Amino acid sequence: VQLQASGGGLVQAGGSLRLSCAASGFPFDDFAIGWFRQAPGKEREFVAGISRSEAITFYADSVRGRFTISRNDAKNSVSLQMNSLQSTDTAVYFCAARAMPYYSTVPYEFDYWGQGTQVTVSS
Fold it and tell me: DSSP character for 42?
């Protein structure tokens, strides 16, 4: 089982990044997917989630309207488009997979985790 997150980097405030998460080793289309982030000294927090099948999405209040999560089951991948980035978005971003139809906002309810990708937004 592998979840490989990529696409992080350094960007100025107001800029955009697109994160990708490539999955392998499990039936991807049976899993809901979530993106979480963790800033230094802070707990891991939910960012966005997408269900399986109907691809229902949900966002944390702090990113709603700026971030968009999408999935491509044919390619076993999930993306997170991040626009209007702010310094408060600086964190390591993780993708996670949950063997249930719908996403969760709670980290311990996810079964598999990627290694994380660093996003740094300079003000």
Answer: S
Written as six digits, the tokens of 54 are: 């109907």
Q: What is the pLDDT of residues 7-58, one digit of tens each?
A: 999 999 999 999 999 999 999 999 999 999 999 999 999 999 999 977 799 9
β-strand 17-24 against 77-82: which pairing, if any? antiparallel
Q: Could you identify the residue written with the tokens 């405030």? A: 13
Evaluate whether 93 touches 45 at the Cβ level (below 8 Å): no
Phi and psi, residue 52, nearest 5°: -80, 170
Cα-Cα-Cα-Cα dihedral of 87, 84, 51, 41, to 10°?
0
AA identity, residue 80: L
Residue where the block lists tokens 């997917």: 33
Per-residue DSSP letter, 25: S
